Amino acid sequence: MRWYQGYRTSSWRVDETYVKVGGRWKYLFRAVDKHGRLIDFMLADRRNTRAAHRFLGKALTTMRHWPPSSITTDQLGSYPKAIRRLQREVKLSADTKHRTCKYLNNIIEVDHGALKRLIRPTRGFQTMRTAAATIKGFEVMRMIRRGHCLTCKPRVKEEIRFVNKLFHIFAVAA
């Protein structure tokens, strides 16, 4: 799917939300660009500096050809520490700005709600592995529906063709 995503802007919005896994609340870290296109996500047991560092490192690896010029987060104290640590490790440019402006993160907050509407009928997940796989599927289908890939067209038949191409399915149900 990454091959079809195309260019991302250099302004990232990063936030976390809660997801129930195995009867316990876990943290779903997500990053989107300023247009709402998904950069990456990660499930974690805790919402601390180590988890934020791991997630941002993963997102930077995913988008290594398009590093961010600015990262907007909420007021969570672990993000500034994680960003400074990544800058010390030279995984993130020292020029990268960290913003904590609340209204700039509205795009990802609204996106959390849309994702949670898909997750709610599942009534939680049994394991982290199934949660990650299911959320990945939800995110891919949402990207296709919203036209966040280069070859996606906003028609159902085109969506079917694209999914068939991704999964190497050669018979198309008409």
- The arrangement of helices and strands along the chain is EEEHEHEHHH
Determine the structural class based on helices, strands and strand pairing: alpha/beta
Provide a count of the helices: 5
State the share of residues found in helices, binned by percent.
25-40%
The CATH H-level superfamily is Ribonuclease H-like superfamily/Ribonuclease H
CA gyration radius, whole angstroms? 17 Å
- CATH level 1 class label: Alpha Beta
N→C terminal distance: 23 Å
Q: Number of DSSP strands? A: 5
Strand content: 15-25%
InterPro entries: DDE_dom, Integrase_cat-core, IS_Transposase, RNaseH-like_sf, RNaseH_sf, Transpos_IS6
Protein name: Mobile element protein
GO molecular function, one term: DNA binding
Domain Integrase catalytic: 5-165
Walk me through the structure.
With 174 residues, the chain is of the alpha/beta class. The protein has a single domain (2-128), classed as Nucleotidyltransferase, domain 5 (2-Layer Sandwich), CATH 3.30.420.10. α1 packs across α2. The radius of gyration is 17 Å and the shape is globular. 23% of the residues are buried. The chain has helices at residues 49-62, 78-88, 106-119, 128-146, 156-166, and strands spanning 11-21, 24-33, 38-44, 70-72, 97-99. Strands 3-2-1-4-5 form a five-stranded mixed sheet, sandwiched between helices. GO terms for molecular function: DNA binding. Residues 5-165 form the Integrase catalytic domain. Involved in the transposition of the insertion sequence.
